[in-house]
Amino acid sequence: MNNNNLEKQIRELGKANIQELPPLLRSRQDSIYASLATIVQDPVEKEKKKRIYPKITAAVTAAILLSVMLTAIYPPTLANALKQLPLIGGIFERADDIGLQAAQRLGLTSRLNSSDTHEGITLSAEEAVFDGSRLAFSVKREGEELEGKLAGVTIGADGKPFLAEGAITSAEVLIDGASLEQFSEGLWKAMPFLSWIEGAESNTAIFRLVDSSNSGISNKPFPDRFVLTVTLDLNGIDEPFVLQIPARKATINKISTPDIRAQVGGWSLILKKLEYSPLTTRLSLMLEQDTDEDHTALSLVGFEVKDQQGQVLKDISQKVLSTSNRSLNVDLLTEPFEKHPNMLKIRGYLYEFENPQSKNGAFKTDSSGNPVKHYIDGLEINVLVK
Description:
Layout: H1 3-16, H2 23-39, H3 46-73, H4 76-83, H5 98-105, E1 110-118, E2 121-130, E3 134-143, E4 154-155, E5 161-162, E6 168-175, E7 178-179, H6 180-183, E8 193-198, E9 204-210, E10 225-234, E11 241-248, E12 254-256, E13 260-264, E14 267-276, E15 281-289, E16 301-307, E17 315-324, E18 327-334, E19 343-351, E20 373-384
Antiparallel strand pairs: 1-2, 2-3, 3-9, 4-5, 6-7, 6-10, 8-9, 10-11, 12-14, 13-14, 14-15, 15-18, 16-19, 17-18, 19-20
Helix pairs in contact: 1-4, 2-3
């Protein structure tokens, strides 16, 4: 349901109901709308944001109280319509991703104007941001009686997961009309990587497309400007949804090529490139095994990036490609650092398996459900950040 239809429905329901809104609530409603009108603006300057936040908090609190009071006065149909009023702020602002939050706070995101409707369901592209390494964009679903998640599985009343009607089943993208295979000139290992996750609301999804120019196979980065054509299939809907996402690089990235090497116990780790923006931190690494020992461990090594405050940067993607039976290229993309550090630490580790005698199978997990890491002593690099 779009905002125009929602407003029309609320007006019609209000006319059909014989009860008038009490003057006190009517006055409060008008003041809330007036407050909201003053805060719908682009987040350009940090100081402006400091002044805006208290207004947003007050307006949201008042709107919630008003909604509760209206629910008691008006019939359930109107109450359900009120629940569909959009939340203040963008999907990126509520994402569990400090890079997307920073991009919106700094005014790097662009609002999109692309939607498609089939069988009473509308998908809309909401916002996008691009820093040359990753393109992120959000999608919102609107439609009657769709309660399941747009991205991922929904948990039913019986506690079992299922794919709800209207959930994404597949996604394909074109870069300026070219498929990812065409863009990577047929090198599937160098194809950009597309993924998506659920947004803060169940009817939203956040997509990310990461290029593979650091893979060591292809040096073809994304262009600074392109149009992404997205085709989405939803469960239970016959026709695919097609959205257009204009991408424009919105950042000036810091790049260094330190070529730092760490060697320990037959392992060598080389940091070839460090690139960072308000949206991402990206490292190009090479891992080498100098001995003729079992090379299966080579493919089991992971990497962690930590700033000088001890904060581990959250992984976005970690793409590993073999260049020989003794060496790997690692393209590691993480969220940005919240505070600019003087130094970053890159550490190599191996996952522990549930069966310590096995070299495959399920990973051992800690009490929080996270895989247990066994750090490789000495396989670490400290790099100065300019």
